[in-house]
């Protein structure tokens, strides 16, 4: 079945290096055998760490990219540590977690602050985030920033798969073998979003 694309809705992301990317894809494919609805890949469903989801009107896109380049220019990016596998039980999801160093907390907030003016508030983001099922603070973040992933709800991770039920999720999770990685990003990417806030393709690469 063809993946539904959310036109003019983008994710500003960090893409892991090849070794970590291929590890995430391998774990995702293992989970897919246990019942997830999709698996990560190299051409679509890209493994990624989300920084900011933002719908942008086509007429504003070029200015948005210019602004984003200015935002990240000369920012001192540090390392990320892939440090855990986690069951996100409310959504029957399995996440590959990273740490949350000070630099990434400052980085994603700077991206939001400098580029929120390009957010298309006419886009029906509440429906896409299923806002009525989010915690109250996430709902507040969604109205203020256009994303629930702010403050303590900004949790850097790679989503490996989403199940339909707890039993399949726990069965799949039990088959995974965890491996640690450290890496230092040197670029961010603007990716086209698809169903379930998946990254379907790279639209723009921006070196930091």
Word description of this protein:
- With 208 residues, the chain is α+β, with helices and mostly antiparallel strands.
- The protein has one domain: Cyclic Phosphodiesterase, Chain: A (Alpha-Beta Complex), CATH 3.90.1140.10.
- Helices cover 30% and strands 28% of the residues.
- It contains six helices and eight strands.
- The protein has helices at residues 18-32, 61-72, 102-115, 125-128, 136-145, 166-173, and strands at residues 5-14, 49-55, 80-88, 93-98, 157-162, 181-183, 187-194, 198-207.
- The strands form two sheets. Strands 2-1-7-8 form a four-stranded antiparallel sheet. A four-stranded antiparallel sheet has the order 5-4-3-6.
- A hairpin with a 3-residue loop joins strand 7 (187-194) and strand 8 (198-207).
- Helix 2 (61-72) runs antiparallel to helix 3 (102-115).
- The chain is globular and about 45 Å long.
- The chain starts with a strand and ends with a strand.
Describe the SSE topology.
Blueprint: E1 5-14, H1 18-32, E2 49-55, H2 61-72, E3 80-88, E4 93-98, H3 102-115, H4 125-128, H5 136-145, E5 157-162, H6 166-173, E6 181-183, E7 187-194, E8 198-207
Antiparallel strand pairs: 1-2, 1-7, 3-4, 3-6, 4-5, 7-8
